[in-house]
Design a protein that fits this description.
This protein is α/β, with parallel strands linked by helices. It folds into four domains: 127 residues, Response regulator (Rossmann fold, 3-Layer(aba) Sandwich), CATH 3.40.50; 95 residues, Arc Repressor Mutant, subunit A; 52 residues, no CATH class; 30 residues, no CATH class. The chain has 15 helices and five strands. The C terminus is likely disordered.
Length: 332
Amino acid sequence: MPSPICVLVADNTRMYTQLLADILGRDPRIREVSTAADSASIKHAIQHQKNIDVIVLGSNLDEVPLRGIALLRELRMTCPEIKGVVLLESSKREVILEAFRSGARGLFSRHEPLETLSKCVMQVHEGHVWANNEQMSYAVEALALSPNIKAVDANGLNLLSKREIEVVHSLAEGLTNREIASRLDLSQHTIKNYLFRIFDKLGVSSRMELLFLTLNQNSGLSMSRGIVGKNGKDPEKPSIAWYKKAAEAGSALAQVELARMYSDGDGISANTAMAYMWYTASERSCTEMTAKTSLLKRKLEKQLTSEQILEARKMATEKFPQADPSLVHSEQ
């Protein structure tokens, strides 16, 4: 069991701040919860307590919009070891990206159940990223458009080679290992080795954590400490963010896999409703695809003889017996 941690909570109102502190205080994994009312008291607490592990900040402080996000950036410049959770008032893309760039490791929406805040804090303390799929998709999109990826150590020396940076750029675009290998004219085995080396150099354990880390451009990406140590995760497996991006683009296979993840709680919080939604989306995608392929097949049939059509159907059945159309129809 991890050691109890110390948390500082600060929001725009004293009442809500105390509510959050009371909820966190019920978790036995949290040793101490202190509160602050404004930027000045937050800075004072950080300077004098010295043992704060996680800080939970409202995005708006001192009655100034986004002051909490700006303050987090200031705090991390002097105390980079502190991990931050931002309480979001808005789900706008620019606010979410600004929170990430300020060094937030967790984004907690006002619409989330307050009972899950403790889980968010513990996940962030353990080095993980707490964000929903929409928020992570914004990060992935921003990475794909970002021309530069910095990765330097405390002395400003580059940690990644030119080729490794190319691999990270490709990951940001949502490419699989096979697609990256094709783009860079390398083998998939070589790409996998590159990923292991990148994970080791940057102290991350998954594609999602790597994407999040490289998003934080403004901090210079100091890698003197990692997000989380190696845990044996296979870099061959695409991230949840990648599956979501592909699913939203209409990939039926990605939609089915995302639905399974939600159903099983595999790498993401179990959510039966979301699983059902993505299975439904997959059914619709398959229906649309079937209609399109049927139309294209009919056009091609005009160019083939009856013997060629029968031979093509036979080849398809032999190659993919589990998808034999005759078996499907016989069961209906």
